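Need tokens for this chain, all 323 residues.
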Amino acid sequence: MRSLVLLAIVGLAAQLVDGSLGMAYGVTSTTLLLAIGASPAAASASVHLAEIGTSLASGVSHWKFGNVDWKVVAKIGIPGALGAFLGATVLSSISTVAAAPVMALILIALGSYILIRFTAFGLPRRTLDKPLGKRFLSPLGLLAGFIDATGGGGWGPVGTPAILASGRLEPRKTIGSIDTSEFLVALGASAGFLLALGSQGINFAWALALLIGGVIAAPIAAWLVRHLPPRILGSAVGGMIILTNTRSLIRSDWIDQGDNPVRFLVYGLIVAVWVAAFAHSLREHRKTPAADAPVATSQAEQRQAEQDERAGQEQRGTQPDPV
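Here are the structure tokens for all 323 residues:
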């Protein structure tokens, strides 16, 4: 019973991070299940089964707060479900050990780019009107879904930085769309695991405990991502990507040296830079909050913004611009 309560708490914390930053639910949950002795396939299967419910709750919450681009969800989610199904069915015969450090290096580079871009310049508003096409999103979804199923997590760490780095979708909509499309990925992975393992290969008690915690956290995380300024959110996501994938790289066969204390120095330096970047973004946002505010994404929000502008002009004694 105690382990199930712990899993529920982990599910809550993992979904809070995932719903706010667009990543880390699967990685966090799978890591704990592996620590208590679950096989990789059983751990990934249980987590993805729980993600059917948590991603659905998260998607509804993000939709309510206006954080979802449904075109992006369709373009990346369907290939993602296919990739997850393929990854789940071949997990027992495909090893991702050799590919892990290469992927970690790519993600560290993307995370560094995002951290620098958002910390130094804020939201790249001039590119937000350029739609993301299938040529970019479909291969990305296929790859991210496959990695997510075979590695017990990866949909957010692969999909979120790639879309953010494109500069074509603001951070809150990137996170909301990735979290919403994860529902399709979880369905595809679960179908693959059920086909490969059967129901006896999945611990439904683990999945239920993770689900309960995740459902509780989903609306809180969606509210956070709706109201956090893009500049601050971008810095937070970039730091999370760098730290998570540096840890994976250090623990890979390329570098792993057991309990070498140097790795803690590396983690400390990354955290120090991350905190400094976050503090800088916060200071810059306080100086110019209007310039860094989330962009209105619906007609109702646009009308409200126009009304606020006219009211401000009237208070300053100027005539409002014609609409």
